[in-house]
């Protein structure tokens, strides 16, 4: 029997620890724009957007939300929301156009202004180093499939940590390495648009290796800040009780979750997944695995929905009877509770953060207002799911709503809206939605 969403029971901020972190999240390519401004280099997503048919609406990130020029307005919106933390990503090609060599001081100056603006408003700084927009110059030298990229990433991580570590609460190495590896290098639907499982698995290994190398280097440099990684994770269920579906679900979970968690936590890849991959598995050494398994201060969890595995026909998510978002993803908050409990119980992770959680819906502006009750409900139910995990002893210390505002939603272009704040793209006017006002009231309770 499939579980149904719990009823909307009253929950307030006072039900969480007083030092619990409440935030919003964004990423550089999705909001900044200014892709040719102040010496920024091209990223793989700039190049990918030029490929015919790559982006659903034929758009690109050249303007996006123009956050690069409107960041003060956006910081004021955050302050009015009442969040005490902001998770954003740094654009590697903005601060180092070629991914190696000279630093771009104009790019670093932008992030200095952004960070100081956050601190002036009493908002914690949580930086992600790699949210998918690697410099195109490095991609032309092999990108994440080239082991040398790991060294370039470490130099970038160290430079950011040296410049901003004293202001920064946490530093995340990579956001969702599965997406970069699988969607970008195996399925080809995200940048850089390659289609090779062997390459994808090598990329995944280098992402994990560069994470461990960067964490080790920052700690050896004596820079004090919280270090971790962010993974996109979902409970995966078999679509039926057939042995074929049970096995398919186990392997799919292995490729999505255990392939990343096992090396990070145990210093090894799962044997059943290595066997499944065969010749497509990457070559690695015991030293690689020891480097990957650096102790972490936190693991970030990006959760949107659950998934089903079928050895035959694709699973029809509509058959669950639960609501489905504009992305076609089932609304299933219980999956977040289940996931957080698993990470603590199975992997012993002592600090978990919900680093992204949100939903895309077709918002409609009526008389200058956006009544996005479904997004409000989604956030409310997933905050409750987070609380349910904490009530079972899971150490969760933060929740970041995705996203602060509507933005460039990767291959979907501007057709999908996840924001608490509506962006009218022709005018770039920002308008808080009903969900933003609910979050504001929740945080002020």
Gist?
With 445 residues, the chain is of the alpha/beta class. It has 15 helices and 14 strands.
Structural summary, described in words:
The chain is an alpha/beta fold and 445 residues long. 41% of the residues lie in helices and 15% in strands. It has a single domain, classed as TIM Barrel. The radius of gyration is 21 Å and the shape is globular. It has an 8-stranded parallel beta barrel with strand order 1-2-3-4-5-7-9-12, surrounded by 7 helices.
Please give the count of helices. 15
Q: The CATH topology is what?
A: TIM Barrel
Could you say which overall geometry the principal axes of the C-alpha atoms support?
Answer: globular
What is the annotated CATH architecture?
Answer: Alpha-Beta Barrel
CATH first level: which class? Alpha Beta
Give the DSSP E fraction (strand runs of 2 or more residues): 5-15%
CATH H-level superfamily title: Glycosidases
Share of helical residues:
40-55%
Ends: how far apart? 37 Å
Strand order of the largest sheet: 1-2-3-4-5-7-9-12
Compute the gyration radius: what is it?
Answer: 21 Å
Number of strands: 14
Structural class: alpha/beta
Largest sheet: 8 strands, parallel, barrel
Mean pLDDT comes to 96
Total domains: 1
Q: What is the chain-wise order of helices and strands? A: EHHHEHHEHHEHHEEHHHEEHEEEHEEEH
Point out poorly predicted stretches.
1-8
Family: Belongs to the glycosyl hydrolase 1 family.
Protein name: Beta-glucosidase
InterPro entries: GH (IPR017853), GH_1_N_CS (IPR033132), Glyco_hydro_1 (IPR001360), Glyco_hydro_1_beta-glucosidase (IPR017736)
Catalytic activity: Hydrolysis of terminal, non-reducing beta-D-glucosyl residues with release of beta-D-glucose
């Amino acid at each position: 029997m499939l579980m149904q969403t719990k009823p909307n029971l009253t929950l307030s901020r006072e039900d969480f620890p007083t030092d619990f972190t409440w935030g919003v999240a964004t990423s550089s390519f999705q909001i900044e724009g200014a892709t040719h401004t102040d010496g920024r280099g091209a990223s793989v997503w700039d190049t990918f957007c030029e490929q015919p048919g790559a982006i659903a609406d034929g758009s690109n990130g050249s303007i996006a939300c123009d956050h690069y020029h409107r960041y003060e307005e956006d910081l004021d919106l955050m302050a009015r929301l009442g969040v005490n933390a902001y998770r954003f990503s740094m654009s590697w090609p903005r601060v180092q156009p070629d991914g190696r060599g000279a630093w771009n001081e104009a790019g670093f100056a932008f992030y200095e202004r952004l960070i100081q603006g956050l601190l002036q408003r009493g908002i914690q700084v949580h930086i992600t180093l790699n949210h998918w927009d690697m410099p195109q110059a490095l991609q032309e030298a092999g990108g994440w499939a080239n082991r040398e990229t790991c060294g370039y990433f470490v130099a970038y991580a160290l430079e950011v940590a040296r410049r901003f570590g004293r202001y920064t609460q946490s530093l995340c190495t990579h956001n969702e390495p599965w997406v970069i590896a699988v969607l970008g290098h195996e399925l080809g639907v995200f940048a850089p648009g390659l289609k090779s499982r062997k390459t994808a698995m090598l990329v995944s290994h280098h992402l994990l290796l560069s994470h461990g190398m960067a964490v080790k280097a920052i700690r050896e440099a004596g820079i004090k800040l919280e270090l971790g990684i962010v993974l996109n994770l979902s409970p995966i269920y078999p679509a039926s009780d057939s042995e074929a579906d049970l096995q398919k679900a186990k392997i799919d979970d292995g490729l999505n979750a255990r392939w990343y968690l096992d090396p990070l936590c145990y210093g090894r890849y799962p044997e059943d997944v290595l066997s499944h991959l065969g010749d497509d598995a990457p070559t690695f050494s015991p030293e690689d695995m020891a480097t990957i398994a650096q102790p972490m201060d936190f693991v970030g969890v990006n959760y949107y929905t659950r998934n089903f595995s079928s050895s035959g026909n694709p699973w029809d998510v509509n058959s669950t009877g639960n609501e489905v978002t504009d992305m076609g993803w089932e609304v299933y908050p219980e999956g977040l509770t289940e996931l957080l409990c698993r990470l603590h119980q199975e992997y012993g992770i002592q600090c978990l953060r919900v680093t992204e959680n949100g939903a895309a819906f077709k918002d409609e502006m009526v008389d200058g207002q956006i009544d996005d009750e479904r997004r409000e409900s989604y956030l409310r139910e997933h905050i409750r799911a987070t609380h349910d995990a904490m009530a079972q002893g899971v150490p969760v210390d933060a929740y970041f709503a995705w996203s602060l505002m509507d933005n460039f939603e990767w291959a979907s272009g501007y057709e999908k809206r996840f924001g608490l704040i509506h962006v009218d793209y022709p005018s770039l006017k920002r308008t808080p939605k009903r969900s933003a006002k609910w979050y504001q009231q929740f945080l002020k309770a």
